[in-house]
Amino acid sequence: MTKPEIAAIFTKCGALLEGHFRYTSGLHGDKYMQCAQVQKYPAENEKLCQELAENFRMLELDLVVGPAVGGILTAYEVARQLGLPAIWTERENGQMKFRRGFSIEPGLRVLVVEDVITTGGSVQEVLELVKAQGGIPVAVGVMVDRSGGKAQYDVPLASLLQLSLPNYPPEQCPLCQQGVPIVKPGSRQVQ
Predict the structure, then answer these.
(1) In angstroms, what is the C-alpha Rg of the chain?
(2) Type and span of the H or E element at 176
(3) Domains and CATH numbers, the chain
(4) Do 126 and 97 touch, CB atoms closer than 8 A?
(5) Best CA proximity match to 76, nearest among 68, 93, 59, 64
(6) Do 121 and 148 form a contact (C-beta atoms < 8 A)?
(7) 22: which strand partners?
C-alpha cells in the first residue's frame, strides 16, 4: 500500500479529528488521531495491520505485545497476520503490567505494537516490562507515529503513517486563549 492509500483509509474512517484536544502528554492541539475509528471496521483494520506486519515478516519473532487500549486490536491483528500469539499490558494503579495470566517466558523474541504514539511513553513502558520478564524486544510497530521523530527506542521502529501535528503547552495554547472548549479523547486520563 502507498502512503496516500494508507492515509485515505484513516480519512475515510473519520480517524483524524479536529477540535481542541488535551493529549496524554498534557499538551494541547487542534487535531487528534483516533485509530479506534479505523479499528471499528475489521476489514480496514486488517488491511492496515497486514501492511504493518510486512515490516516484520522476515524477523524471528515469538510473540506480539501491545498496551491497552489502542494496542490490543493492533497486537491481535498483527499477530494473526504473522501467525503468532498476542497479549497486552494494562495499567494498574498507574503502572504498566501484565494481567489476565499473561506473562513472557525468558528468551521469547517480542514485537511491541501500538496504534498511535505521540511521546512514545507507553511503548517504552511495554519494552521495559518485556525486558523485566526476560523477553527480548526485537522491534516496534505503530500505525501512526505522531512523535515527529522524537520517539526513539533501542530497537527498530516501523510506522504506516507519520504525522506532524502542532501542539502547545496549555499556557501557550491559542485555542485556550480563544476559549474553545477542550476534550480529552484518549484512554489515559491526565491530571
Answers:
(1) 17
(2) helix 174-177
(3) 3-165 (3.40.50.2020)
(4) no
(5) 64
(6) no
(7) 28
Torsion (CA) 20, 26, 32, 36 in degrees, nearest 10: -130
Q: Which of 66, 43, 164 is nearest to 115 (CA)?
A: 66
Strand 109-117 with 136-145, pairing: parallel
- Exposed / middle / buried, residue 115 (Cβ in 10 Å: 0-12, 13-18, 19+): buried
Query: In this predicted model, what pLDDT tens digit does every residue of 152-185 receive, in sequence order?
Result: 999 999 999 998 888 899 999 999 999 999 998 8
Give the strand pairing for 63-67 and 109-117: parallel
pTM of the model: 0.88
Identify residue 128 by its one-letter amino acid code. Answer: E
Q: CA-to-CA distance for 78 and 51, rounded, in angstroms?
A: 9
Is the pLDDT confidence value at 188 over 90? no
Do residues 161 and 141 touch, judged by C-beta distance below 8 A? Answer: no
pLDDT tens digit sequence for 37-94? 999 999 999 999 999 999 999 999 999 999 999 899 999 999 999 999 999 999 999 8
Alpha carbons within 13 A on the beta-carbon side of 98: 17
